[in-house]
Amino acid sequence: MKFPRLWFTQAHTLHRVVQIDARRIFWHTLLLGLLFSVLLAIPFVIYQQAESANRLAQLQIDQERAIKLARNAIHQEMDAVLSDLHYLSSQNELKDYLANPSPGNRLELARGYRAMARQTSLYDQIRYIGLDGMEAVRVNFNQRRPEIVPDALLQDKRDRYYFQEMLWLSPGQIYVSPLDPNVEHDNVIDIHNPVMRFGTPVADSQGLIRGMVVLNYMGQHLRNKLAEYKGQESSIWLLDSTGNWLFGPAMEDERDAQFPGRALQRHDRLSPRLWQQMETKRSGVHQSEAAWIRYERINPLMGTGIPDWTNIVRPTPAQDPTWVIAVALSRASMQAAGSALRKKLAMVYAVLAGFAFLAAGIIAFVVHRNGALTRVMEQVVDHLPVMIAYVDAEQRYRFNNMAYHRVFGLSPKAMYGKTLRAVMGEATYLRFLPYVQQTLAGNVVSFETQLTYQGTEVLDMAVTYLPDFSRQRTVRGFYAMVNDITLLKGSERRERQRILEMAQISRMTSMQEMAAEIAHEINQPLAAMAMYSEAGQRILEHETRYVQVRTWLKAINTQAKRASDVVRRVRRFVQKDDSNFASVDLNQAIRDAALLLEHEAQSQGLAITLDLAPDLPAVHGGQVLLEQVIFNLGRRALLALAKQAGTRHLSLTTRFDRAWVHVEVRDTGLDLDPALGDQIFDSFLTSMEQSKNMGLILSRTIIEAHAGTLRYVPNPGGGTVFMFSLAREDGQ
Amino acid sequence: MIPQASTVYVVDDDNAVREALQALLSSVGLECQCFASAEAFLAVADPTLRGCLLLDVRMPGMSGLELQRKLQHGKTTLQILIITGHGDVTMAVRALKAGASDFIEKPFNEQELLDRIQGCLQDDIERWHTRQSLEQARARFLVLTPRENAVMELIAAGHHTKKIAGLLGIQDRTVDVHRFNIMHKLGVRTLAELLRLWSLSRQAPSD
Questions:
Q1: How far apart are CA A581 and CA A600, in angstroms?
Q2: Which of A309, A367, A489, B122 to pair with A540, CA 20 to 30 A apart?
């Protein structure tokens, strides 16, 4: 299986083999993302609630402010009108006109009125009407260009209701008409220009009432003023004391003004319930399906703006001169604001929720991957052939891998929390204790020891303790890594044993060599003795006088022979014993010898090539002896190669034919001097080469003891080939 | 040519053994010359030496076998008797393969040694005689003229007179005269005798 290499995997870490389960990550992401989104929604909802409550409060404050402003505006307006009326009723021009109603004075009066109209822009008409009902002076506002109405157009107002009403007033009293559209004989003249008439009777210097001053106040002015105070989402209404609209929702809307039958609404009332509330309470709030309506009942003429006005008589018209100011806030506009907020919040929330899902995805991925990595690590740790444990400072096992289970038969669960003493047993524990203490003192400790396992088997263990430091540099515990090296130790022991055996054989063989030497050395004088005595006997053969001497010479000869026999027997005794001979696989012998040579070859940086014939027939001989021969030849080759530069090869080869098994040791080292010939095998070589050749002499002796021959030829490519051949055990 | 007296040459590094051997050999009336090393013998080695060489294989310096190898290259015609250590069979075999006449294991029975030496000396004498007659035969042919030699070779090849005459481009009679002269010079009476002498002269100078 090919593992994809991802950007987050490093080249040589376990991360690469970790499997990613995209399906699980997806579901975890979904779950976590939903959870995060829900949690995230809570502050949004709370904020939205608080914000809309806040907004509502703000709107209410706005409403209250609008009402207050409207009230002040109305009072100001009314005060201004009353002040103007007071002025007009007591001005000198009027007094002059009343004293002498000449056309000149009338003109003066008219001019004064015109100046007033121009200056204030509040009045549609300013008039002086005589007691007979005829307008004596009249100034029309005429779209901001006040004009004095010519005499011919002056009208008789005898039958007007306001004229009638004012006839009953005494000077100082003021008549105020309701604010209504210009109504002439019950016909609406101009719906857009509601008018409020203010009038007061005037008397001449004798105190006789001569006429009346009448101001037609333009309601439009008040409406415009109020419109300035209405809030963004609210509208200001004005109702009269009977609940009829003065300025109502209909008037606010320019389109509705063109609606036919508009006049009918003039007397429309609010919903009965709302009006009932307004009639009973001076101010309050009404909440209905469509709107929130805050209202306050006021008397428009009870303003306090003009100090000297306090003394004048307040008008007392027939109707109650109270108005209701209402500020309406439509539900729709409130909701519109709320929904705008909601929309904004929803957008922010959606972005944040997206981030939440992203974070959830990352978390799910990291958690999943860490989990997978941990599982991989656990698997690896559990299946290592090394016992791995964590031991805390109290010497209790906190973690054990499955290798412990294999050795101690205790599951990691059963080991958890047990002390070293309890698991190892007292005797073993005491042996380990110094190492444990050293480790807990903060040192890395490695040692080899033997454990008696299950009472019988002895295991060799290589132990490493690695202290685990806390952040304060105290030892929290340590990691224990225990390697079972029984097999390794065993083979080490066997190897040592084999080398010892080799040395023993070497010693034995040299003893045999020595015995041969000694025998030779003793035999020489013995032979001389025998020959001297024999010679003497022969010379004295025919001398009868020396019979006794001849007998003695013969005895000497016999004794010399006897000594020689003893030497021969001793020599035969130490002679190589063939009783250990058996079937030998030369291939195996070569492999074993190559293992022994491996180290030296490696230190020289060359490899030993084995070219072994398969199915090599066995030979009869001593396995160890033949190994020794191959080892000796190999060693000699390595010595020869050590002095050599350039290509260096050492190969061990086996071949066989119908009768023989051949072994070759081929090197590319220094050439042997061919002139030396068989001398290199000769133990009597006097040169310095002798010590080096001891191995060869021994080898030759061993091979000859196996009825084989050891010889050498130059290697065609340089170097030397040593070869020997031994008879096949099954040979013909 | 007067044959030299047979001598036993002894090469052995051991003084005592050497002198004892000399005593033993002189006790039976054999001429004996002793050398302490192979090199010493090699210095006097000469093809005219007569007798046998008694050679110990185990010696420091040049070993017995080494000396044997060197002597083979025309240095001597001596019979070589090798003395080997006890049980050193392989050494003996190698010596025999290298051309030794015989070998004897040490320690040896003196009588056996003497018998072997006698055997070797006898061989040497026989071989000397053979060589002598061979050389005489060869010397007799030296008196022939080149033409007679040519005729002799064709006779030895078994050709008749006519064939020989044809091959040499001479008269039959002339061939007969040559043959008569050859037989007269060599002192043989029959053709069979002539051919035996011819084949003897053609043998290898040594064995």
A1: 29
A2: B122
